[in-house]
Amino acid sequence: MPRHVTIIMDGNGRWARQQGQQRLFGHNAGVDSVRDCCEYAAETGIEYLSLFAFSSENWNRPEDEVSGLMKLMFKSVLGERETFRKNNIRFRIIGDRARLAPDLLAEIVKLEDETASNSRMTLIVMLSYSGKWDITQAASRYAADVAEAVRAGKEVPALDDNVFASYLSTAGIPDPDLMIRTSGEQRISNYMLWQCAYTEFYFTDVLWPDFRRTDFARALEAYCSRDRRYGKIK
Ligand code: IPE
Ligand code: IPE
Ligand code: MG
Description:
The protein has helices at 12-18, 23-44, 63-79, 81-87, 102-114, 131-151, 161-165, 213-224; strands spanning 4-8, 48-55, 89-94, 121-129, 178-181, 200-203. With 234 residues, the protein is of the alpha/beta class. The structure holds 3-methylbut-3-enyl trihydrogen diphosphate (2 copies) and magnesium ion (MG). One 3-methylbut-3-enyl trihydrogen diphosphate binds at residues 9-14, 54, 58, 69, 183. One 3-methylbut-3-enyl trihydrogen diphosphate binds at residues 8-10, 52-55, 58, 185, 187, 189.
């Protein structure tokens, strides 16, 4: 069983178009998939489920779609309290918080605090996130620590994989074992570039609003048959 599963939830817009609806209709429908997958992941003993909800590049979408997505996020943060309480799930957001509206951020922080001691599973919503942003912010924070150490005449922190990872926004979270992407696209779209170094990828044509626990189970089954070698010989 993977410890950490991450999902690039893609295909909401195409799903909506298939129904003859606006794109936001698809985003709304996607919330039901999130709930089902979240409950299923908790039931199966997955420790971390992270969901790519909004990328740094998604800010470049038309304003009404961006504001609709942010409203939906606000509504979900308020509305899913019971799901987290009932399932003993810890909620976290990872991404560039500086770009989020203050009222949304306040609700997020409130929910993070409320669920901080929930221990069955951690749900991480990647919001205003991109892999390059993450690596860049880590590099600049490391540079600041080096400058501070030099200024104070202290030892400069040596850099290796583990030290660098501790500056990433995902510090303390194990790298994803399995990455699922829905909607048939087979690319990483600037997602966890560092963290996916040895992640197993699973691509499915199912559009995100149609994705349910049965589809999730199929991905887990595929994962179980993979041979993870990490460059070694078995
Ligand atoms: C994924 O669905 C959700 C977000 C990126 C916010 P899309 O909105 O990308 O849907 P498609 O890919 O256009 O179908
Ligand atoms: C990736 O989907 C981002 C999220 C699912 C949040 P996109 O729909 O933005 O990715 P591209 O543009 O097809 O690569
Ligand atoms: Mg898409």
